Each structure stands twice: as structure tokens, then as C-alpha cells.
Amino acid sequence: MPIVGERPAWRDTFSSLRVPNFRLFTIGHIVATTAIGMQRIAQDWLVLELSGSVAAVGITVAMQFAPMLLFGLLGGVIADRYSKRVLLMITQSLAAVLAVALSILTLSGAVEVWHIYVIAFMLGLVTVVDNPARQVFVNELVGPARLRNAISLNSAVFQLGQLVGPAVGGVLITAVGSGWSFAINALACSGVVLTLALMRVSELVPTPVVAKAKGQLKEGLGYAMRKPAIRWTVIMVAFMSVFAFNLPVLLAAYASDVFDIGASGYGFLNALVAVGALTGALASTRRGGVDLRIVIVAAAAVGVLQAAAGAMPVLLPFALLLIAGGVANLLFITAANSLVQLSSNMAIRGRVMSLYILVLLGGQSIGGPLMGWLVEVAGAHVGMIVSGGVPALAAACIGVRFLLLRRRKRRAAEERQRLAEAEKNPGNPGSTAADVR
User: Could you tell me which residues belong to the region Disordered (predicted)?
Assistant: First the structure.
């Protein structure tokens, strides 16, 4: 599919929402991703209250994302083999059960840190199947005509929920406590199952189901690595997920140690990122197309803004940089998601997206404890600077390599053109093919 196009007309900014099934799916997707973000922030803050350790919060993040790192590619194979709608109904039902269990443990006062670790890991196992199925299901909802718009909107909703969820979770922690936050998450997951059940199955655009065969994991990985647009995007996402996408860990340290603003302040800091993300989500739907340059520039912007926030000693400039970082964050993730999906063949897209999500979420299982340890050793400011500085440096290196490759290709094309012109005019002195060679 084409990966670069014209900017859509204003009336077509949300054209994919004209499809009834996609409207239902988007409502459910907003609820699902926001609910998961709420649960993450509530469980992280609960761990901080129980243990008093930012490193323990990092371990919680690692437990939730480790299954994606370990089994992520298998999730893509499952998404390619079975009905995406049925898979999503199963995964959301399981997520609701886990939220109920954590709610009961918390409200009864019996919860311990190891309980949260176990439930976070089990929720991560659910995510292994849920995320690739959710990404690829978009193809069946809208068909090829509106697919680019639907992918952009879907990836915006996905990341927006990841950023808005913590903000809502922070408010709920203050208003009703962590236990009731988990109960609300269970209701939200049940609502997602309902939206999937209400879809008009006859209006879905079926995609080919991949038969079970040997070597499908290797096939998907090889396909992704052979395509530069996918390969370099995944590498950039790896740097971002390990360092830049662990803001909940860093903001917990800022709320408790730097600005001393407690749980409500923690929710406020996450809300600032969400405000920027909402702006970025709206901007991403106006984008005509994506290419690798957009991904690299957006990643560099996220890194620079986050590093600059780490250097701010007072709350106001720190808050403004969080908003700007939220905008850049959303623009990066929607560009990366769209480029990977639109650059991959339908028959293998589930496996390609599972690799992408493995890196996106699995990288956070490494980055969570890493950034938690760094904050405890060197402080929140150093942690924030490193979280932005490393991705910014990586974007610069990839950008330089990208420019050098383009220059080399341009010179090769010019050389071929001179050779062709020389062969067309063999009588011109100094213009023979031999001279050009």
C-alpha cells in the first residue's frame, strides 16, 4: 500500500468512523486502553505505598510487559490463525476477571506486593494476544478504502488511552482509592466485550486465515528485517520503549520526591501528558502520509523535550514540557504504527505487528526496572534526562545513516543516468559508455 499521500480534506479527517462497526470498535478501544492505563497507574502507586520503593514500581512495570518480551511473537501467530473478534472477546473477559481479583484483594486489605506482581504478569499474558489482534482487526472493520485513516486513528486511540488512562487513574486513586479503581476497570473491560458482541458480523471484511505451518515465526521476523521501513522503525521504537516510554515510573518519583505533591499531583502530571497526547492525536489524523523521516524527527523531538524537562528545577516549565512531550509522543507512535502496518503484507501483518508490539511493550519491561534503579541511584532529574537523551541520540544516529544512504542512492541513480545518456550518444567525444564507467 502507498505510505505517502495527500493531506485529507477536513470532512474526511475521521472518515473511517462512518463505518458502524469501526465506530463500535473505537468506543471499545478507547475504553479498553484507558482502563488498562488506569489499572497500571493504580497498581504502580499501590506498590509505591506498600513498599516505599521506586525500584519496586519498576519491577511491576517489568512484570506486566515481560510476557510480551517472552511470548510476543506467538501472539502474532495466534492473531493470524484465528478470528480476531473472538480473540478480543476472550482477552477482555480475562482482563475483567484479573481486575476483579485485584480489586477484592485491595478492598479487603489483604493485598501484598507479590500479589500485584503476579496479577500484572497475568495481565501481560492477556496483552500478548490482545494487542496484535486489536491492531490487525482494523483491516476487517473498514476494508482497503479507509484503511490508512483507520490505522492512524486506531494507533492514536491506542497511545492516547495509554496516556489518558494514567491521568484518570491518578484522579480515581485520590477520589475513591486503588481498590475501586480496579473495580471500575473490570466494568470497562466488560463493556468492551459488549461492543464486540454488538458488531454486525456480516459487514466485516474477512481476511485470509493463515493455516498452521512450521517456520511462521521465522517467516514473520525475516519479512520485517528485510524491509528497511519496518526494520528502522522497530529499532527506533526499541530505544523509545526502553527509555522514553517509562514516564509513570519517573513521574512517580517527581510527585513523591521532587515536588512533594502526592497521589493527586501524580495524576495531575500524567494528565498534562494526556493533554499533549490529545492534541497530537488530532494532529495525526490530519497527516497525509508517513515515511521514515517523520518517525525519526518525531522520536528526536520526544527525546529532546523529555531531556529538557529533566533539567527543569521548578514545576511550571516542567509541566509545559510534559504537554509538548505528549504531543510529540503521540505523533511518533502513530507514525511508527502506521508505517509498519502499511509496509507489511496482509497475510503476515499479524506477525509483523506482534514484533512491533513486542518491542514497544517488551522494551518497557527492561526500561521499567532500569529507570527505577537509575532514579534511586542518581535522582529523578538524571533519570528524566537519560530517558530523553538516549532516544534523541539514537534518532540522530539513525537520521545520519538515513541521509548517507539517500545520498549514496542518489549518486548511483545519477551515475546510471549518465551511463544511459552516453550509450544513447556514442559519437559524442568524452561521452562514451567506457568513459562514464
Answer: 415-437
Superfamily of domain 13-197+215-429: MFS general substrate transporter like domains (1.20.1250.20)
Cell of 37: 492505563
| Residue bearing the bigger pLDDT, 384 or 277 | 384
385 alpha carbon, distance to own chain's centre: 21
CA angle at 32 for the pair 339 and 72, rounded to the nearest 5°: 55
The closest of 191, 168, 156 to 41, measured between CA atoms, is: 168
Q: For all residues of the chain together, what is the average pLDDT?
A: 81
Give the CA diameter of the chain.
93
DSSP, residue by residue, 31-78 = HHHHHHHHHHHHHHHHHHHHH--HHHHHHHHHHHHHHHHHHHHHHHHH
Q: Give the pLDDT score at 188.
A: 86
The sign one gets for the Cα dihedral 377, 383, 385, 390 is: positive
Which residue, 79, 1, 37, is CA-closest to 356? 79
> Which residue shows C-alpha cell 522520536?
299
State how far the Cα of 248 lies from the Cα of 270, in Å rounded to an integer. Answer: 8
Q: Please answer whether residues 300 and 392 qualify as being in contact, where contact means their C-beta atoms are separated by less than 8 angstroms.
A: yes
What is this structure's pTM? Answer: 0.69
